[in-house]
Amino acid sequence: MDRIEVFTVPVNHRGDWLLVRLTTRDGLTGIGDASHGQDARTLAALRGFSLAVKGRELFRLEVLRQAAIRSQPFDRSVACAFSALEQCAWDLRGKALGLPVSELLGGRLRDSLRCYANINRAVVDRSPAGFAAVAEKAVAAGFDAIKLAPWDDMPREGSPEEVERVTALGMDRARAVRDVIGPRRDLLLDAHSHFPLEKGLALARRVEPLKLFWLEEVTPPDPPENLARINREAAMPTAGGESLFGVKGFLPYVTANCVNIAMPDIKYCGGAFELKKIAALCEGAGMRVAPHGPASPIGHVAAAQVCATLPNFLILEYAFGETTWRADLIEPAEELVNGRFTVAARPGWGFALNEHTLASRKRSVIEL
């Protein structure tokens, strides 16, 4: 490789997108998404990984992966950096061979993917009416599945009265969205691990009247027994696993039957190849896969190439309404119609960064 560029692109009140572009000596470029990592730690990890893999052959991808894994201790920020560079490598391989990544991962089973609109990062007015207003826009855009995280203001050390107040407010937010989207569209709720076991069990009972498509991440993934019990007792499907890295991270999660639906995130789980491996693990356990990914279009199009190849794929996350210029970040723009994303048939991920948009967003650039 010739150089690695890291672009920090301001998005909204919820944070920035962190994008990575790797350029080879022959001028080929590969792009990856490291968004929502801890920027300073992620940048340091990217620098370390670039030294670990410098001068190695692009097509020996597993050698590159193992060299990077051995090069430094892992945490979430490091996993995010590793995953982004792995995405870049797959994009480069596809472009070098003139094939979409889906063809390099066994061939696609589908040409389009059902997506749900995650409205959480677009909502500024966190009242029930504010959530409902953004949900209404997502429905107007053609989505038939909507997700929100209505308990994000849950205090870490709140009194019982404060915990109940926020729990009840979250229920009001969820009911407001259900009222707007109607009974025939799917509603997904993310608890972001804010509940201990007993309160999580109570929450699962409390949301039953909302007829959920799934209830996500009620408690933290460790210990897995807590999520497994909620999964056994909940009337609706449960989902989670967004922060886990690699097959090793998912193995106890899957074997404990923590959820019905696994949600590996291509930005955290180790990239495209690890996402494919995790999906195979889940397939063996009879578990569906719905990759997590409320981030930039790059992470979305990369995950889509993998999802197109998965027998146990269910639905893909789409960050709805974060910006007015999302469609301009990559060339060509994402093809999303009535909540279905068309998987690109072009080489690699099938997209490139739009230099004009990058320049206009006052982004910062670091070359490693």
Q: What would you note in describing this structure?
A:
- α5 packs parallel to α6, α9 packs parallel to α10 (272-284) and α10 (272-284) crosses α11.
- Strands 4, 5, 6, 7, 8, 9, 10, 11, 13 and 14 form a ten-stranded mixed β-sheet that branches. Strands 3-2-1-16 form a four-stranded antiparallel β-sheet.
- The protein folds into two domains: 3-98 and 354-367, 2-Layer Sandwich (Enolase-like, domain 1); 103-349, TIM Barrel (Alpha-Beta Barrel).
- The protein has helices at residues 39-53, 61-71, 76-97, 101-104, 128-140, 160-181, 197-206, 224-233, 246-255, 272-284, 297-307, 355-360, and strands at residues 3-12, 15-23, 29-33, 112-118, 145-148, 186-190, 214-216, 238-240, 261-262, 288-289, 316-319, 330-331, 336-337, 340-342, 352-353, 364-367.
- The chain is of the alpha/beta class.
- The mean pLDDT is 93.
Please bin the fraction of helical residues.
Answer: 25-40%
Unreliable stretches covering 5 or more consecutive residues: none
State the CATH architecture of the largest domain: Alpha-Beta Barrel
The H-and-E topology, N to C, reads as EEEHHHHEHEHEHEHEHEHEHEEEEEHE
